[in-house]
Design goal:
Layout lengths: L7 H10 L8 H15 L5 H33 L6 H6 L11 H38 L5 H18 L10 H21 L1
Helix pairs in contact: 2-7, 3-5
């Protein structure tokens, strides 16, 4: 059986009751479930989101620290800031100006360094949150109780959003996966406008 042949009702039997006969066994279920996750965009979990945010902060800190370091070295060697870096750092919301005063320029760089320290605290908080999430995930059983609950909430929410109930016998999981993806995309677009 494929995802396009699997109804919501059969999918729910596997997810909620661990009855895999309707899909041809557990291996087929794993394949269908994985395809559902991929099609619906549900793979973008809280864990992935935290990792992506942490990585973005790391890249920002690394770049800004590099700009500060290369400018201090350039000032020491040539009494001039490193070319192009004043413009580059503007992309991160920092504005510095070279007025020929080496000490003033170093003060501006140090000010940027202090302002970026809040990013370090933010990163550390996100790392703690990620570690806690992973720790809790390790405690979770393979029953995937949260998946069951989330799926039922999602199914009912999409039905209400569309203004009618979704026929669990006639709606195939590939179609439902695309409904989930569409709803998720609409929500993300709405959140970006705010």
């Amino acid at each position: 059986m494929t995802i396009s042949e699997c109804s919501i009702k059969v999918f729910m039997e596997c997810l909620c009751n661990k009855k895999y006969d309707g899909v041809g066994g557990f291996d087929n279920w794993n394949s269908i479930y994985t395809e559902y996750i991929d099609l619906s965009g549900s793979a973008d979990t809280k864990e992935c989101s935290l990792k992506r945010t942490i990585l973005n902060i790391e890249l920002r800190l690394s770049f800004i620290n590099s700009v500060i370091e290369v400018n201090i070295r350039s000032l020491n060697a040539f009494n001039l800031p490193f070319p192009g870096t004043i413009e580059d750092i503007k992309n991160y919301g920092h504005h510095i100006a070279w007025n020929g005063d080496k000490e003033d320029f170093v003060k501006q760089l140090k000010k940027i360094e202090r302002r970026e320290s809040k990013r370090i605290a933010e990163r550390e908080g996100l790392i703690k949150e990620l570690n806690q999430l992973v720790k809790e995930g390790m405690k979770a059983t393979n029953v995937k109780e949260n998946d069951r609950k989330n799926f039922l909430v999602l199914l009912n929410g999409i039905g209400k959003h569309q203004g009618y109930g979704i026929d669990k016998d006639k709606t195939m999981m590939d179609e439902f996966s695309l409904m989930v993806k569409s709803r998720k995309d609409e929500y993300e677009a709405l959140m970006q406008k705010k």
